[in-house]
Amino acid sequence: MADRFAGYGNGLDSPAVKVAQVSSDVDLPAGPCRCLLVGTAGTATVIDSEGNTATNIPLQAGYNPLRVTKVTFGSAADVWALY
Question: Whole-prediction pTM value?
Answer without folding.
Answer: 0.83
